[in-house]
Amino acid sequence: MADRTAGKTSRRLPSILLAYLWIAPAAIMYCIFAVYPLTQTIRYSFYDWDGIGLASWVGMDNYHSVLTDQQLYGSLVNTLTLILFICVVPVALGLIAASAARLVRSAGFAAAARAVLFLPQIVPLAAAAVAWTWMYADAGPINQLLRSVGLGGLTRPWLGDFSTALPAVGLIGSWVMIGFCTVVLTAGIGRIDASLYEAARLDGANALQEFFAVTLPGLRHEIVVCVTVTLIAAIASFDLIYMTTQGGPGYSTMVPGVQVVRLAFTENRVGLASALAVVLLVIILAIVLPVQRLNRDGSVR
C-alpha cells in the first residue's frame, strides 16, 4: 500500500513541477512590476527623500502628515464624494435601467439602449474629459442651454467654481460608469429563472415588488462586481481629475491619485507621496475586501 502511494506521488510530481513552470513567467513579471514596487513604496514611506539625494529616516511622521495635513486629508475626503457619484449613482441607475430593459417587450430597443449607455466605456477617458471640459465652459452647451430657457442666473464656469467643481467632475464619472453597470446587471437579470417572476406575478406582486423580491436578490453577485469596480475607480481616480481640473480650483477637487503625482514629481517629496499611496491602498483594501466577503458568504461576518 505504501509503495502504491509513493508511486502515485512520484507520478504527480512532474505535473506539479510543470504547472509551476507554466506560471513562473507571469509570477516573475508580477513580482518585478507589482510586488517589488509595492515593497519599495512602503519602505520609502518611512523616509524623508527628494528622490535624488540621501534619505533620512522619519518613521511615522509621513503618515501623521497624511492624516493631519488639511490638504492631504482633504483629498481623502473628496474621494468620499467621488464614491457617491462614481459608485453609488451608476449602480443605482444601472439597476433601474436593467430592470426597465427587462420590462420592455422590444428586444431591439433594449439592445440599442444598452449600446448607447455603454458607449462612454468605449470612449477614452481622456477624450471624454476634454469633451466635458468644453461642455462645462462658460460658453459651452450647458450654459447656453440654461440661458436659452431663461435660467441664465444659474450659469457659471462649472469646473472653475469651488462649490460645483467636484460634483461636476463626479457627474462625468457617473456618465462613464453607468453603462458598465447596466450591461453587467442586464446580463445578471438574464440568468434569473423566469419562473420566479411568474410565481411572483401569480402571488399578485407588482413590478416594484418583483424587483425587491426577485431581481435584487438574484443580482447579488453582479452588484458586488459593479460595486467593486466602481469603488476602485472612484478611490484611485487620477486621469479624470487630472484631465479636467488637475485638483483645482485650489484643492477643491484634489484626490490622492493626483496628489501623489504632485508630491513625488513636482514637489520632490517622495516619502510623503509614498505614505499617501500606502494609505490609499489600505483604504481600498478596507472597503473592497468586505464587499468581496459579502459576495462569497452573503453577509459580512
Task: Outline the fold blueprint.
Elements lengths: L1 H43 L2 E2 L7 E2 L3 H8 L1 H34 L3 H16 L2 H12 L4 H8 L16 H26 L3 H9 L4 H12 L1 H16 L3 H6 L11 H11 L3 H28 L4
Antiparallel strand pairs: 1-2
Helix pairs in contact: 1-13, 2-13, 3-7, 3-10, 4-7, 7-10, 8-9, 10-13, 12-13
Rg from alpha-carbon coordinates: 25 Å
Classification by helices and strands: mainly alpha
Q: Which band does the percent of strand residues land in?
A: under 5%
* Structure annotation, total helices: 13
Regions with pLDDT < 50 over 5+ consecutive residues?
none
Structure characterization notes:
With 301 residues, this protein is mainly alpha-helical. It folds into two domains: 2-44, no CATH class; 62-297, MetI-like fold, CATH 1.10.3720. 76% of the residues lie in helices and 1% in strands. The chain contains 13 helices and two strands, in the order H-E-E-H-H-H-H-H-H-H-H-H-H-H-H. It has helices at 2-44, 61-68, 70-103, 107-122, 125-136, 141-148, 165-190, 194-202, 207-218, 220-235, 239-244, 256-266, 270-297; strands spanning 47-48, 56-57. Strand 1 and strand 2 (56-57) form a beta hairpin. The longest helix is centred in the first third of the chain and has 43 residues, at 2-44. It is globular. 29% of the residues are buried. The model has no long low-confidence stretch (mean pLDDT 85).
